[in-house]
């Protein structure tokens, strides 16, 4: 194939030009500027280069977005796997504690106890079985930790502003709960506020419970660390900024350091109410 | 060695450095329209700083492989003609797009330098191929992209020893790369890029054609 990207294109058709830059191919280069002029695609070489600049910018910007958008799905898989590993490790740790208590008296609980048993001696078959289960439990907790490290490394590339405001793991959980960065960017901030609290929300909608004030964003220091009466306000303020951050990350990809400052000030004002009353 | 037209030694607060004229890109120091070209952050800058005969006069048509965030290619576009910037990683390309925004002669392409047929429909034959790809098989990338060079064109490559083999002695890696490059290219000059970049070899070469 020896055609340039512009062959047969309407010079004003942006979408088709972008498609050609992205997906076209040729075995060898040729004097494309001259050929474009000869073919009547551009009036002269400088017009050709102007057009080439426009379309390579547009095509590359779109291609970057596509590639990074695909990365958000990797993040979704990773954070779901992390949550599964954590939950399963905790469930198994309870089982280990119950079993261990029956053999050695009350020795403790949680993954930490399972780790101590995994490293301990086993004198008989029962101890060996318990130790083996403890090893699996500890290994699952290790897997959760290494997935968390992976998320902390990759989330800032997928959603830089959201990761700065929420922290990488909460950012990844929000993206996962929404189903992707694009879906998160399209949600109103009131929905972002209660993502992860769907059960409570539906109970409320059926008329049997108060409306939930926060979903998974409760893990953020700005909600958890605010006194109970003001948590609703803090959650609303945080969700508002997180929504904006998700939209900036999805639609433009710019860094907006001012978002963090605005959020800090807003939370400070909410927390200052305490002193006024 | 003479510097290409559009590149000069310029004083920045009493410190003289290579510089080009254009919009700043990476927070480099500026003086009027001159912007400092830091050889510690640019292998091509280090090649010029170390006095290699790059053959650059200014105004060339350039294919730049491994443009990353655009640090070096922005300087290249400041003093060269049409400049095609190929980079495969999406993250740095966002910054490359910012650098290209104010440079009408800089054409960013999110492409894999190991698959030249995916950009040969856009890139014209060039005077210079600049290569700074930190992947294995750097000599192979140079060979694959030889097709873009004019007969009297130049390859200006920075070969990173650690990208080929982290455990091997850099000298051995460079010997192997020189030999592999020699299949397609006549090597004109090879110089290590110390003190600016450790374990990097600067290469000036021209295609073998008869």
TrEMBL record, chain A:
Stretches of the chain forming a coiled coil according to its record: none
GO MF, one annotated term: snoRNA binding
Residue intervals of the Nop domain: 158-272
Pfam families listed in its UniProt record: Nop
GO cellular component entries: box C/D methylation guide snoRNP complex
Name of the molecule in the record: NOP58 family protein
UniProtKB/TrEMBL annotation, chain B:
GO MF annotations in UniProt: histone H2AQ104 methyltransferase activity; RNA binding; rRNA methyltransferase activity
Subunit structure and binding partners: Interacts with nop5. Component of box C/D small ribonucleoprotein (sRNP) particles that contain rpl7ae, FlpA and nop5, plus a guide RNA.
Natural source organism: Haloarcula salina
Identification of the protein by name: Fibrillarin-like rRNA/tRNA 2'-O-methyltransferase
A Pfam family matched in the record: Fibrillarin
Keywords on record: Methyltransferase, RNA-binding, rRNA processing, Transferase, tRNA processing
One of the protein's GO biological processes: tRNA processing
Feature: compositional bias, Basic and acidic residues: 1-13
């Amino acid at each position: 194939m020896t055609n340039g990207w512009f062959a047969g294109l309407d010079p004003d058709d942006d979408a088709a030009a972008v498609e050609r830059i992205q997906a076209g191919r040729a075995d060898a280069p040729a004097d494309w500027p001259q050929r474009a002029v000869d073919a009547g695609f551009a009036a002269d070489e400088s017009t050709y280069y102007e057009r080439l600049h426009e379309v390579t910018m547009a095509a590359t910007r779109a291609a970057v977005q596509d590639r990074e958008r695909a990365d958000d799905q990797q993040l979704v898989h990773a954070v779901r796997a992390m949550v599964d590993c954590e939950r399963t490790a905790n469930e198994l740790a309870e089982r280990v504690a119950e079993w261990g208590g029956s053999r050695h008296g009350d020795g403790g609980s949680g993954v930490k106890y399972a780790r101590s048993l995994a490293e301990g001696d086993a004198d008989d078959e029962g101890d060996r079985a318990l130790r083996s289960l403890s090893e699996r439990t500890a290994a699952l907790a290790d897997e959760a930790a290494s997935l968390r490290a992976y998320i902390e490394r990759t989330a800032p590339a997928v959603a830089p502003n959201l990761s700065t405001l929420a922290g990488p793991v909460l950012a990844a959980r929000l993206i996962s709960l929404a189903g992707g960065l694009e879906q998160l960017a399209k949600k109103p901030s009131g929905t972002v506020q209660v993502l992860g609290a769907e059960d409570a929300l539906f109970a409320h909608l059926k008329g049997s419970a108060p409306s939930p004030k926060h979903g998974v964003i409760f893990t953020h220091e700005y909600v958890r660390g605010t006194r109970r009466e003001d948590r609703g306000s803090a959650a609303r303020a945080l969700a508002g900024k997180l929504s904006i951050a998700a939209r900036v990350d999805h639609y433009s990809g710019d860094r907006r350091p001012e978002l963090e400052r605005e959020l800090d000030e807003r939370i400070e004002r909410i927390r200052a109410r305490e002193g006024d009353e | 060695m003479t510097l290409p037209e559009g590149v000069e030694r310029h004083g920045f607060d009493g410190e003289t450095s290579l510089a080009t004229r254009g919009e700043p890109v990476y927070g480099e120091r500026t003086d009027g329209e001159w912007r400092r070209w830091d050889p510690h952050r640019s292998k091509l800058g280090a090649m010029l700083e170390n006095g290699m005969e790059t053959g650059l006069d200014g105004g060339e048509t350039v294919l730049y492989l491994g443009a990353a965030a655009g640090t070096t290619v922005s300087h290249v576009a400041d003093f060269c003609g049409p400049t095609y910037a190929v980079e495969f990683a999406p993250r740095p390309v966002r910054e490359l797009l910012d650098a290209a925004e104010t440079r009408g002669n800089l054409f960013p392409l999110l492409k894999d330098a190991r698959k030249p047929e995916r950009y040969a429909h856009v890139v014209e034959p060039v005077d210079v191929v600049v290569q700074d790809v930190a992947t294995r098989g750097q000599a192979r990338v140079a060979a694959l992209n030889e097709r873009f060079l004019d007969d009297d064109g130049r390859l200006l490559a920075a070969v990173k020893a650690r990208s080929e083999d982290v455990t091997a002695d850099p000298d051995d890696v460079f010997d192997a790369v020189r030999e592999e490059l020699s299949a397609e290219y006549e090597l004109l000059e090879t110089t290590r890029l110390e003190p600016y970049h450790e374990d990097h070899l600067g290469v000036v070469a021209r295609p073998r054609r008869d």
